[in-house]
Design goal:
By secondary structure, the protein is an alpha/beta fold. The chain has a single domain, classed as Rossmann fold. Helix content is 29%, strand content 20%. It is built from five helices and six strands. Strands 3-2-4-1-5-6 form a six-stranded mixed beta sheet, sandwiched between helices. It starts with a strand and ends in a 5-residue tail after the last helix.
C-alpha cells in the first residue's frame, strides 16, 4: 500500500510589478493556513517518508513550514519540473522514488495538481483550494505501479473547513 498526500501550496501574495509568478511568497493568511492544516495533520499522526515540492518560492515555503510543523526529517526534493509538470511528468517523478518509502507528500500548484488527483482517483474534485490536502491510497507495491484511477481518496481537507469550528487540540497549537 502506497499513500500520497497532494498539497496545494498556501495562499500567496498577489502579483506585484517586478516579481515573477515563480518568486511570489506565501501571504500572512497562507502561513496561518499552514499552521492550521499542519496542526490537524500532526493531531492525526500523519507523516510521510519523502517530500517533493515545486521550486516556486511559495511551494518551497509551504513545504518547509509544513515539514517543521510535522517534525519531518526525511528527504526533501525541490524540483523545477513540478512547477508546470504534466500528469505524465508528475507520474514519472513519483514512479522514480525510493520503493522503501510507503508515503510521500507532493506540494504543487493548480490546475495541474487538481487534474492529477482527479486522474489518479475515481472521483472528481472541482477545486483544490490553497493549502488543501488530498490523501490518495494506492493498493500497489511500487511507485511505478501508480496509474490512472487506481487511487482512493482517504481524506480531503482545506483551511476553510476549520473557519467556524476548530477543535481545541488544533487551536491550542496555534501561536497567539
Amino acid at each position: 500500500m502506497k499513500k500520497i498526500y497532494f498539497i496545494r501550496h498556501a495562499k500567496a501574495e498577489g502579483f506585484s510589478e517586478g516579481i515573477s509568478d515563480f518568486e511570489r511568497e506565501v501571504s500572512k493568511r497562507g502561513y496561518k493556513d499552514i499552521q492550521t492544516i499542519g496542526s490537524y495533520l500532526a493531531l492525526q499522526n500523519i507523516s510521510f517518508d519523502i517530500l517533493l515540492s515545486s521550486c516556486a518560492l511559495r511551494a518551497q515555503q509551504t513545504a518547509i513550514e509544513l515539514a517543521e510543523r510535522l517534525s519531518f526529517s526525511g528527504m526533501k526534493y525541490f524540483l523545477d519540473e513540478l512547477y508546470f509538470a504534466s500528469n505524465e511528468e508528475a507520474l514519472q517523478i513519483i514512479g522514480a522514488q525510493d520503493e522503501s518509502a510507503q508515503s510521500m507528500c507532493v506540494v504543487g500548484h493548480n490546475p495541474h495538481l487538481n487534474e492529477l488527483v482527479n486522474r489518479l482517483s475515481q472521483e472528481t474534485l472541482k477545486k483544490m483550494p490553497s493549502m488543501s490536502v488530498v490523501a490518495l491510497e494506492f493498493d500497489v507495491e511500487q511507485w511505478s505501479e501508480i496509474a490512472e484511477e487506481k487511487g482512493r481518496i482517504a481524506f480531503f481537507i482545506y483551511p476553510k473547513q476549520f473557519q467556524y469550528y476548530m477543535p481545541q487540540q488544533i487551536r491550542s497549537k496555534l501561536p497567539r
